[in-house]
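Posted in: Protein Modeling Q&A

I'm a second-year student putting together a small comparison for a lab meeting, and my supervisor asked me to include a predicted structure for FAR-17a/AIG1-like protein. I've never done this before, so apologies if this is the wrong subforum. The sequence is pasted below exactly as I got it from our records. If anyone can share the structure token output, I'd also love a short note on what stands out.
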Amino acid sequence: MGRTAGNAASGLINAAALGFGGYGLYYTIKYIELPPYLATAGRWQFLTNLSLVISLVVFALGAVAHAVKSTQLFQIKNALHPVALVLELVVTLVYWPLRIVFIRLLVSDPSRKFIPMFVDICLHLVPGVALVIDFFCFMPRLTVNNRDSFGVCMLLTFMYWAWLKRLIDVEGGGQYPYNFLNVDAELTRVIIFVIVGVTGYGAFLLLRRLYDVLVEAEAEEYAGSKKED
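Accepted answer (user: helix_wrangler)
Welcome! Here is the predicted structure, written out as tokens:
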């Protein structure tokens, strides 16, 4: 599989993910009315929306880079890709188990109508799946080491915690966007943030390990076919 700029399949996947993800974000902003206890903090309190914006930038860069065969844009996209991937891994791995099994840990009022399933998939599944496919099939090997990866994960975790602290007025009746964060002690909330951040880092390490195994097998197969020729 081509891991350079100009790959039509990768460009198509990026363009499709850009379209689906963009629609999901548009629908959320245009049609979803937040309950009073969330409305004050606005739509950018949700990690889903924040991570999706970064993912859309990655998808746009990927689609254009492959369309015009720009190595520079391809490299910029690959530099941003791990950040988007970690965030979308957290979104997907946390959201769907809670959405399906532990709904009360996700929302404080499960009786409220959820967004349409198609929009739900555009927001919480398509970006992560597209990034994983792109990572395994079309990206060159990442050069960032595990220590720096962990540092980035913890930095993103701290930034999101600080962002919510700034946005949410708990004393004024505001609540955190995900119900499992609505705990009394701030230390408990910080521990939850760290656990979620470590989960994202662990998933990223697993994907890197799988990448090494799969790409090595791909390289060996390619080398064998060249020898036969």
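A couple of things worth pointing out for your meeting: The mean pLDDT is 91. The CA atoms of residues 44 and 133 lie 27 Å apart.
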